[in-house]
Design goal:
single chain; alpha+beta; four-stranded antiparallel beta sheet; 4 strands
């Protein structure tokens, strides 16, 4: 019992000393943040877009019957496979990329695509 009577005043004095020396921490200063520049986003190319692009770029080609466009993650270009006229098979290829303004898709090699 004697040990517990001695520890009580020591514990109380240590608690008081630690409580008296504490001050509230200063509020953190807000750091200025730079707003990210918005990047234009283009719609995902589909059969309708490819049909329109081919009709504008290559008016002598038969109309697109079927098409599949794929864009790999992080790529700047889109690979499209398509069939023309009555052809249901994806026999032809075209690569699409954003135009200089970055607001529309365009065919990257129209001479090769139009030569089909």
């Amino acid at each position: 019992m004697k040990n517990s009577n001695l520890l009580l005043p020591i514990f109380a004095s240590v608690t008081l000393l630690t409580a008296c020396g504490e001050e509230p921490a200063p509020a953190p200063e807000p750091t200025p943040t730079v707003a990210a520049e918005p990047t234009p986003t283009l719609p995902a190319p589909d059969q309708e877009l490819l049909t329109t692009l081919l009709a504008e770029t290559c008016p002598d080609l038969k109309p697109v019957n079927t098409a599949v466009c794929r864009r790999t993650m992080g790529a700047d270009t889109v690979s499209c496979e398509f069939g023309l006229g009555e052809d249901d098979y994806l026999r032809n290829d075209a690569t699409l990329a954003a135009n200089e303004a970055g607001d529309a898709w365009e065919i990257t090699d129209p001479e090769t695509v139009c030569a089909l």
